[in-house]
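Re: weekly structure request thread

Next one in the queue (76 aa):
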Amino acid sequence: MQAKAFVLIETAVGRNKDVANALKKLKGMKSVDIVTGPYDIIAIAEGDSLNDIGDLVTGQIHPIAGISRTVTCLAI
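Done, posted below.
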């Protein structure tokens, strides 16, 4: 069974479209939506394991320029 997580992302002012476009290019991203509210983007990530999700978030999502903060919610 695949692991799934919702990644809630805050971006720097005016950077949400750039960040969303960068996220869409990453392997493992199933959905990327710009939203209103306390977060700017909600993305859905999937991988073969929880470690894959962790590697995606820490190794590929966090380095994207314009991301201020993330909260990762694992689906159980």
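The longest strand covers residues 3-11. The mean pLDDT is 96.
Next request, please.
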